[in-house]
Amino acid sequence: MANAKDQRGFTLIELLIAITLMAVLAGLGWRGLDSLMRSRDITQAQVDQTAVLQTVLAQWQADLNAVQPVPRLSEAGVLWDGRTLRITRRATAWRADGADAGLWVVAWTLRGNQWLRWQSPPLQTRAALQQAWANAERWGQNPSSDDALLETQLIPLDAWQLTYFRGNAWTNPLSSASDSSGVSQQTNTPNQGAMPDAIRLQIDLPATTSVRGRITLDWVRPNFSNTKT
User: In the beta sheet, which residues pair with residue 79?
Assistant: First the structure.
C-alpha cells in the first residue's frame, strides 16, 4: 500500500507547463532555422551575382585583349562615341575546316539600367565588316529587331564611364590627342586615333543588388611600356 501511494503520475498543471516549454523551444528552434536559411539564401545570391559580375568583366577584358585594328574602318580597333563602345576583334571560334574564322564586331552600351553587349557573326570580308560596324552603331542608338537578336543582357548598372590613358595622362575619350603645347583639344566627333595605352572602366552598381557600389577596372595594352619618369 505504501509503494502504491508513492507512485503517482504528472498533474495536469505539470503537463501544461511541459507542453508550453516544448512549444517555446520549438518556436525558438524554428526561428533560428529560418534565420539560418535566409542567411544562406542571401549569401548564395551574393555569390551568384559576384560570379556573373566576374564573368562580365572577364568578357570585357577578353574583347580588349583581342582588339584587331582595321585600316580605314577602325584604325584603333576601338571607338567610343559617348554612349557605345565598338570594337573590332579576332574571333575565337574556328571554322569547320580549321581555317581562321575572321573578325567579330562587338559593342557595349547601357540602355536604361541594363548593360548590354552586341556581337556580330564571324566576318571574312571588308564589306561584311563595314556593314557590321554600321549595325553596331545603329544598335547602340536605336536597335532594330534584327540587331536585338545579337545582343546579350549582362548586369544592371546605374552608370558607366570610360577614360583613356594616352600621352602619359588620363583623358576624355572624346578629346583629341594633345597638341604641341600639351593641351588636350576637345572635339565633337569620336576620336579615331591610335589605340590608347590603357582604358579605365568605371561602373556604378545599383544599391538594390547584393553587389553594389562603384567598381573601377583598368585594361592596359599588352605591348604598352610607360617611359614616364
Answer: 86
